[in-house]
């Protein structure tokens, strides 16, 4: 069977890339053409319109697409999750200096960092030149983590900050050009910005919202005869990716094939959760920074409910409806278990 699978260049696309490049898909009788998509909006539309057969997709965007809240309404299901966490908030060097953190220690208290961000944001808003912060898509865990981060400092993001959408591969260039003052994005783009001398990693997503639901494998809800072999292939590839013994080989593969615009050593650090946070080489380690382990593969309807709760909190979904139930119904642990044999 021949299928076309879309992905956005991020470290957590590793399971779908490895499934193709290392032969896991071929062993299941699948010939997969990988399609590198420039943005989540493009991927969303191409999946909804049938130009892609499956996709590495933002969990909340899959829900929003199925509910008709973003782009063409799509009849899709989520038979597998691809991982948890992986995001960080990075700010420009100038913004970090203005935040006047108590120290340059890499493990500063998250609330203190958020308070510094809130103070600068309020001041800039009062001067009529609000901070411009990038997120990868309105329906993304990144948008929700930014709101939670701002809330730790007592800041209402909507009233004090200009939030703009920047596709992951464009975040570093947008920071370089001064189009944005910071962003929340997935690995490796935060580390790429630091390596380029453009910014400071201010907060890790896994500390703002531990075990945050992230990317999923999304495909047509009914009639996808390739669903079971695809889930098996990506699951087995995910197990390989999560093995620390394969970290060097995986980093080399991603640097060569996924067009992440970064070297293998930098990608390896994101996989290990050992991040350089600033130009001075300070390191912050958190093994939960990006989770691709087997425990993350089963799609959990509770994760979908949490995501809908965040959508409601930021006004994307009206409270009191059935969006949580409909979102939870998209996450199909029964399909995952049937595919991998329980």
From TrEMBL:
<dbReference type="InterPro" id="IPR044527">
    <property type="entry name" value="NrtA/CpmA_ABC-bd_dom"/>
</dbReference>
<keyword id="KW-1003">Cell membrane</keyword>
<keyword id="KW-0997">Cell inner membrane</keyword>
<keyword id="KW-0472">Membrane</keyword>
<protein>
    <submittedName>
        <fullName>Nitrate/nitrite binding protein NrtA</fullName>
    </submittedName>
</protein>
<keyword id="KW-0813">Transport</keyword>
<dbReference type="Pfam" id="PF13379">
    <property type="entry name" value="NMT1_2"/>
</dbReference>
């Amino acid at each position: 069977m021949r299928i076309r699978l879309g992905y956005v260049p991020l470290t957590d696309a590793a399971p779908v890339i490895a499934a193709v490049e290392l032969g896991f898909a071929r062993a299941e009788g699948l010939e997969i053409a990988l399609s590198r998509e420039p943005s989540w909006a493009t991927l969303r539309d191409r999946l909804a319109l049938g130009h892609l057969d499956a996709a590495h997709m933002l969990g909340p965007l899959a829900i929003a697409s199925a509910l008709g809240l973003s782009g063409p309404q799509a009849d899709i299901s989520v038979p597998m999750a691809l991982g948890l966490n992986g995001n960080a908030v990075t700010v420009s060097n100038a913004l970090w200096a203005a935040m006047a953190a108590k120290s340059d220690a890499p493990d500063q208290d998250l609330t203190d960092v958020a308070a510094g961000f809130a103070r600068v944001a309020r001041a800039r808003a009062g001067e009529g030149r609000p901070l411009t912060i990038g997120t990868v898509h309105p329906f993304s865990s990144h948008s929700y983590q930014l709101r939670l981060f701002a809330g730790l400092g007592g800041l209402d993001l909507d009233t004090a900050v200009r939030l703009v959408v920047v596709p992951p591969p464009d975040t570093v260039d947008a920071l370089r050009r001064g189009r944005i003052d910071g962003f929340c994005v997935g690995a490796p783009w935060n580390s790429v910005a630091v390596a380029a001398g453009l910014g400071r990693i201010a907060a890790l997503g896994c500390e703002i919202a531990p075990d945050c639901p992230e990317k999923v494998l999304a495909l047509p809800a009914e009639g996808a005869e390739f669903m079971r072999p695809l889930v098996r292939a990506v699951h087995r590839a995910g197990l390989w990716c999560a093995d620390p013994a394969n970290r060097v080989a995986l980093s080399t593969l991603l640097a060569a094939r996924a067009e992440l615009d970064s070297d293998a050593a930098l990608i390896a650090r994101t996989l290990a959760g050992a991040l350089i946070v600033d130009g001075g080489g300070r390191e912050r380690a958190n093994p939960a920074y990006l989770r691709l382990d087997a425990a993350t593969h089963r799609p959990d309807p509770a994760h979908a409910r949490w995501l809908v709760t965040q959508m409601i909190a930021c006004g994307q979904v009206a409270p009191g409806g059935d969006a949580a139930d409909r979102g939870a119904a998209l996450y199909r642990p029964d399909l995952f278990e049937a595919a991998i044999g329980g």
